[in-house]
Amino acid sequence: MQSTNQAAEATTHTLPLAEASQPGRLVSLDVFRGLTVMAMILVNNPGDWGHIYEPLEHAAWNGCTPTDLIFPFFLFIVGVSLVYALDGVKQRGGAPGPTLLRVARRAALLFGLGLFLSLYPKFDFATVRVLGVLQRIGLVFFACSALFLTTSRRTQLWTLAGILIGYNLLLQLVPAPGQATAQLLPGHDLGAWLDRTLLTSAHLWKVSKTWDPEGLLSTLPAVGTGLLGVVTAQWLRRSDVPPAEKVVWLFIDAALLIVLGMVWNSWFPVNKSLWTSSYVLYTGGMAVGGLALLYWLCDVQQWRGWIKPFLVYGVNAITVFFLSGLIPRTLSLIRLPDPTGKAADTGLKEWLYQTLFVPLFADPRNASLAGALALVLIWLGILWWMYSRRIIIKV
């Protein structure tokens, strides 16, 4: 990563996760990204994983909680962002090869950063989780960028439809080897078998060891989520359509996607871990509606007095996401006497939580939530300072 002191309003960097607002750009996109990253920090960093309010947890399997909206929102934003970053290159024509090479480098770097987080601090390559959130973002970024640069919007829509239908047929009609019928149970679907076969159980999600929520096969419909952002951005960039008409059609599209997702849920349930086709449509509809609302407020009506906290998160999203995963692991290496007396010592992160938050709250869920909110506010202060100093971390 590199640091720059360019004004946030003038940056031209093309990484979807680290664009700053500038004249002629979507301020709403930066705000949406900031809101999403802020929510991600909140749900990923509870004070106590054993005491969490239900909306801040993922659905156990089928279903969708507010927390299950965060990652698809992020991928949708990646799709929107890459169109704004690469549309000028596409409009100029010419061979897409050099641009795709730059895209591939950034995707590889995102994948590498995610792999580094999985390795840190033990660097045990024998059991490292190969896939993960940043890894999936990198793969979706590359696939959607390649499709955007080399195909038309119509082709992208057909590709999206093909992905969703094909993925549904695969998971519900093709049984994993060794099973008589296709199953949509944890560890028993075709995607789980593929992950165990190609990656082995040692390199999967440590909680299950038999399947991975960011697995190889489910990355395919995750590309579909990114494509929803790609086609939405191309509609927003049309200069021949009045802003109010854009917003109306975006809300109509959002409603249709949500309804289609709920209908599809009847036979292919909404499920984040499998990233089902119904989940793509349902969460995609929520994302389109959210962006439409923010676009109307921030870009059309110019109501921007409230956006600064989300903007500072949005322009340095890659920084806060990476460091919020790195710093807790580092703090856990610093050992102190356990204030609960349950062990001889504990990591500094846990010690701070037990010392500063647990004594203040009778309900452990409130203490856990307070710990997460405190971290969100700490990062807000850091990112606000970075924004005021015009410091943007780029990949």
From TrEMBL:
Residues passing through the membrane, by range: 69-86, 129-150, 157-176, 215-236, 248-267, 279-298, 310-327, 367-387
Coiled coil: none
Domain Heparan-alpha-glucosaminide N-acetyltransferase catalytic: 25-239
UniProt keyword terms in alphabetical order: Membrane, Transmembrane, Transmembrane helix
Signal sequence, start to end: none
Top-level taxon of origin: Bacteria
Keyword set includes Manganese: no
Stored InterPro entries: HGSNAT_cat
Record-given protein name: DUF5009 domain-containing protein
The organism of origin for this protein: Hymenobacter edaphi
